[in-house]
Design a protein that fits this description.
Elements lengths: L13 H11 L9 E11 L2 E10 L3 E9 L5 H18 L4 E6 L2 H8 L7 H14 L4 E6 L6 H7 L11 E9 L23 H9 L6 H11 L2 E4 L2 E5 L5 E4 L2 H13 L8 H10 L2 E2 L3 H11 L1 H6 L33
Parallel strand pairs: 1-4, 3-6, 4-5, 9-10
Antiparallel strand pairs: 1-2, 2-3, 7-8, 8-9
Helix pairs in contact: 2-4, 6-7, 8-9, 8-10, 9-10
Length: 337
């Protein structure tokens, strides 16, 4: 009697297991966060421009025609288009992107195949790599110019017809300076002078600091209800205007002078000047008195203003029962001889 031979099962190969996991694992990124980007830049004697096309898996299509209002070379225009596509993808919340460009130089330098020797292009490359690191997955490919015709047309700021998509939009913008140009850092100092009228309210809203005197502390708490602190700046809640910027004493004279006799100044009266300062969005407690004093000190207002001939007080009639009922006499002398 014959018996079937038994052979033990061999161990699974590690590569087979890895292939199985890769095949059965689904991507966690939704289709709306996967974007395909076509970019192209152009520069000629008439000007420079960039064309960008973004499309995701849900069929959303965005076309951007970006004008460059500064002198560029053709390679710089290609890099500006590449950077503009990355900025748009970041604004749209993209997680996985595929970028296609017809510039062999840009595609090879971004992927690391070519070296970048020009200093200006190296700054562009470093900025691009910084932005690419913000995405989960990126892919940069070079395509022939005929496969990137639409982006090429947009870069030349021309209009073409295209089959309408469900969610299609065309945006035209202008870039005023190179993307690699660094902006000057400005330090904002928002500290309030301790002698200013704003100091008690500002300190209370900023750090909950109050005077030792209980009555003064209660007054400041009550006053603080009408104020709000935004970006370390004090504003007063208004009625017709939502927020009025609080002004220190040192800037009051400049504001009143600009409103009263600036480029749109009409040399208006004190009450109107105070109201116009309110409508301009400013506030300080002594607005009425300061505006009136400013008008009184204005030389042009005193020289060319209307002369008021009316008496200071209301005139009263003198009632006489008969002529010469009242007499008046002045005594003069003695005079020098």
């Amino acid at each position: 009697m014959g018996y079937d031979s038994f052979e033990s099962r061999k161990a699974l190969k590690a590569q087979v297991l890895a292939d199985f996991v890769a095949e059965m694992t689904t991507s966690t990124t939704s289709e709306k966060n996967k974007w395909t980007i076509f970019v192209d830049g152009s520069s000629n004697s008439q000007g420079s421009g960039a064309g960008i096309i973004l499309e995701n898996g849900d069929g959303v299509l965005i076309e951007v025609s970006l004008g460059l209002s500064f002198p560029t070379t053709n390679n710089q225009a290609e890099y500006e288009a590449f950077l503009a596509g990355l900025r748009l993808a970041e604004d749209m919340g993209a997680e996985e992107i595929r970028i296609f460009t017809d510039s062999q130089l840009v595609a090879s330098q971004v992927s690391g195949e070519y070296q970048t020797k020009e200093e200006r292009l190296l700054e562009y490359l470093n900025l691009i790599r910084t932005k690419l690191a913000k995405f989960k997955e990126t892919e940069v490919k070079h395509v022939p110019r005929e496969h990137n015709a639409r982006a090429d047309v947009l870069s030349k700021l021309a209009s073409t017809r295209r089959k309408k998509a469900g969610n299609q939009s065309l945006i035209q913008e202008t870039l005023t300076k190179p993307s690699i140009e660094k902006t000057a850092e400005v330090m904002h100092i928002c500290a309030v002078d301790e002698q200013s009228w704003m100091s008690p309210v500002y300190n209370f809203l900023k750090s909950n600091a109050l005077p030792v005197d209980a009555k003064e502390a209660a007054k400041i708490r009550k006053r603080a209800c009408s104020y709000v602190l935004l970006d370390d700046k004090l504003y007063r809640r208004g009625f017709s205007i939502p927020l009025l910027k609080c002004v220190e004493e040192a800037r009051v004279e400049f504001i009143l002078q600009e409103i009263h006799e600036g480029i749109n100044g009409q040399h208006i009266g004190g009450r109107s000047l105070a109201r116009k300062a309110l409508r301009a969005g400013y506030y300080w407690p002594t607005m009425q008195n300061d505006a009136r004093d400013h008008v009184l000190k204005c030389d042009k207002c005193q020289r060319h203003g209307d002369m008021h001939l009316a008496p200071a007080n209301e005139l009263k009639m003198l009632i006489s029962p008969w002529p010469f009922a009242w007499w008046g006499m002045d005594i003069l002398g003695p005079f020098p001889t």
